[in-house]
Amino acid sequence: MPNFCAAPNCTRKSTQSDLAFFRFPRDPERCRIWVENCRRADLEAKTSDQLNKHYRLCAKHFDPAMVCKTSPYRTVLKDTAIPTIFDLTSHLKNPHTRHRKRIKELTEEDIRKMKERRLASSTDPLSFGKDDGADDGTGNNDDEPQLSTEEKEFREYLRSLFEVVVMLGKQGVPLVADKISEGELKSNSLQALLDYRMNAGDEPLTKRFEATAVNTEYLSATQQNQLLDVCENTVREELLMEVRESRFFSLVTGDLVEFASEKHLPLFFRYVNQQNVLREEFLDFVPFDGDEPALVERLEAQLTDRWGLSMEDCRGQAHKATGTSTIKMKAVAVLLMEKYPLALHMPCSHMALNIHLANSLPFPNVQVVMETMRRIGAFFRTPLTQDELEKAISIHYQKNEEKGTTLKQACGSGWTEQHNVFDLLVDMLPPLLLCLDVIRDNDDGKFVGSVTSDAYSIAETLADFEVVVTIIILKNVLTFTRAFGRNLQGETLDVFFAANSLTAVLHSLNEVNDNIDVYHEFWYEEAVSVATVMDIPVKIPRLFLRKQRAADVGEIQAEPYFKEYVTVAIIRGVMQEVEDMFCETNLKALKCLSLVPAVMGQMKFNTTEENYADVYRNDLPNPDTLPAELHCWRIKWKHRGKEVRLPTTIHETLQLPDVKFFPNVNSFLKVLSALPVLKLEDNKSDTASERLQAYFDSTPAKQWNKSLAMLNINTHVKHDLDVMVDKYCRLYAEDDPEGEAKLDEATEEDVTK
């Protein structure tokens, strides 16, 4: 007779799988935890003997580190194994289907009691039976944990260690600095802080290390990595709990970062939490190696197999890629949308649309311009270089002081990331080149060698006529999308009108394309004029000329060359990118913002959300009643009292106490809120991406650490030391702290904490 898995939403049975199936334990306390994690209300009334005899869980619901294959024919669980990996959301996609294995809906009181019991039991993970199949049937007394003195001291020692590691992570302090020489001990922040704690009277640490030689490291690199991994995974699990509770989310990836010469992709999640507040949180670094299908498969495995999420609930994706990674991430976005059509590919609210469009163009000359802009932004972050730039602006615009003053105000921090960056860059080119020449000459010796070297490199790039032409063309073409992009990052009403103005934007770009000869002539003359001011010769790129000579083709003049290979390429590339980024489905989603009362009022309450609601019909709790509910929603706001102000944002609307009486509207707004194109409302603190960048800026590249970055970025997340101690004890035995287990592969986070 086959064994069926008792987990909700799991249809595996022993005759269809080579997975191991495990009985519920006879130990009453341990069995209770298994049932609690399963969230099967119908199992709660059964005794541990009944469950042991009649019910099984397959190995997919256990942390791989807890499953041991003792031989090709025998698989057993570790002493303290607890099922933690469950799918608790897939049944929500079809709420009308009957389910035999009903999932218990947890109240706030249930969650509170569960956490209290887990904290209490976390002090006693070793008191379970030594063999999962043992028939002793004896329970444990929660009030009297059966721990030896050594085990209690070990847990107190671990707690002190985690407290120190978490503190270092929050402050962004590396545990170990660079080694000065082979014979000299590393400058070890962790070691120094442990010494301080022991001198201050920390008894668990003192007992552990009092006999250790003063020139010996307290913790090996392996032990430090184990501690960091447990901290990282515990913090991540707290965030994943919120994502699972919200169900719908969007993926946002950042620009590539390198750890130990390997490229990784920062992964962020957007979701609306239980307080109806839009959150964007950092979750992990994903390896960037392999081709596009491999990266998609890796993302899916991370989200579904390890984190217990469903890609079917992903409602948006945005990728802030730059350079050569842009093409790869565009292909990844296409593959994800093919598999999950509602994972809409949109621009990210953190990046100006014009910069996103330029980054997306796969032309070498455009990529050189974008990389140079990033270098300029980094180069002028210091007060010394910024002062030099302002002096150069004053010198160049001494006959036009008003414009000089305007430019000096505009070129402050972050000017290379603004919507009108290309307009600013064109006006800044002459003083910028003048400034870089002064820094490169370094007559007064104010600048160090690395700064003068960077100035020389940037100046040589800007002094290329092809770069000048590319900047001029980008400025003029992206003028047509500038207002549209600014509105996309504006208030909800601005985004709604931007979605309805896309037709006009595309019409303008098409008009330029149809009359490209006329437009190119004006733009080329502007480029020649700017180059003349900067003493840059007008010439065709050397590489192109070499290819022409090799092919024995007649020489081409400069203006036709730049028209064909720059102007036409950019205008058509921008048009294609806008059409792809704002397809019909994306526009339908944005037009649903008319659900926000202020947008309704602006439209005189003559809105037609029903025409666009089919995009998210399956996400609604009662889709059949949507038309009637929308009618009531409009009437409610149309006939409001004079003293009632119309909410202007999704966040304001979701905070209304009576929105719960409109369940379809409530669900609709939560899905829309998570779209990555919308700005984070009421976000008074730095965003997760800004905190990540701050960590990289403040930490030397050689000391970057993924786990420390996770702790530093998510300082606002609760750090439960008892949970960390419990997880460490489950994964690493005291007598083998340097075991072979790898936490990043073995630790599947607790899905039902």
From TrEMBL:
SMART domains recorded: DM3 (SM00692), THAP (SM00980)
Keyword check for Metal-binding: yes
Organism: Amphiprion percula
Protein name: THAP domain containing 12b
Molecular functions (GO terms): DNA binding; zinc ion binding
InterPro entries: IFN-induced_PKR_regulator, THAP_Znf
Signal peptide: none
SUPFAM superfamilies for this protein: Glucocorticoid receptor-like (DNA-binding domain)
PROSITE patterns listed in its UniProt record: ZF_THAP
Record key words, sorted: DNA-binding, Metal-binding, Zinc, Zinc-finger
Residue ranges of domain THAP-type in the record: 1-86
Domain of life: Eukaryota
Coiled-coil residues: none
Region annotation (Disordered) ranges: 115-150
